[in-house]
């Protein structure tokens, strides 16, 4: 049974221990004050779910991102299928080459479906971030200039778990994709769009030829399953490796999907709400391999779309702010508690 929230009734005496908000509710209320709702509903939601190296037995181990996927949902009115709102419009995915511990350890390769060959052939985090920004800053304006829900990156009719037919990634001279279309260059790396084998390439070609609407970026909001992916893994590594030049202000606040599901379906509680249990709240099952960054991302996309179909509007309810203590006692201290945190990261 979901926990009940709200004030005690007039006929019931107030018990400060029984009736005080839970820790997760307190954090969500602080976030609501720090990040007021958009004056207009965001048109596009970019869901990010990174994967990082790990060594649970060593708290001093420096985790590094090794997979960076982002999927853009067209959240404008009128889309969706069944209980799912919006459509999956574009997807970017790249593995990332670690530099502090270049060799993947057993803890990492046994936890997630990734190999040494995957990361050896991948760009470093700075290039991967630039590729993600180039993807978002090129494709979102083109989506904004397109009719709502006219661009779809998956096969079928937009249901949960459908396979990708259009993707974007980074390639170089040693890693080319036949039939791919160049979008832009980052040093020796090229952002390309490509289609799955047998898929019609005409929609991708038409999208890339379209003149973008730059104002569409104002309608973009990031999203993640909780605070960890952006606040801890991404921001922490960016700061540690001095990659602040590759940060963007739209990364500094996001739609915390886990909090949104807790508010919509669980009376404000997020206890036990991992990705699998969030999907179950909407009658969905995990599709793919858990801890694969791209599979996790696409399942979180379905949760976000289920929230849209449920009537929950995307909004910034979490972010890099010194006023929120969302991770005290977890993994490591949030980046915003560091007095040397870059101004760009703490600015809303």
TrEMBL record:
UniProt feature, compositional bias: Polar residues: 1-14
Entries under InterPro entries matching the protein: 3-5_Exoribonuclease, Ribonucl_H, RNaseH-like_sf, RNaseH_sf
Signal peptide: none
One Pfam family linked to the record: RNase_T
SUPFAM superfamilies named in the record: Ribonuclease H-like
Region (Disordered): 1-36
Name under which the protein is recorded: Exonuclease domain-containing protein
GO molecular function, one term: nucleic acid binding
Transmembrane regions: none
Domain Exonuclease: 47-138
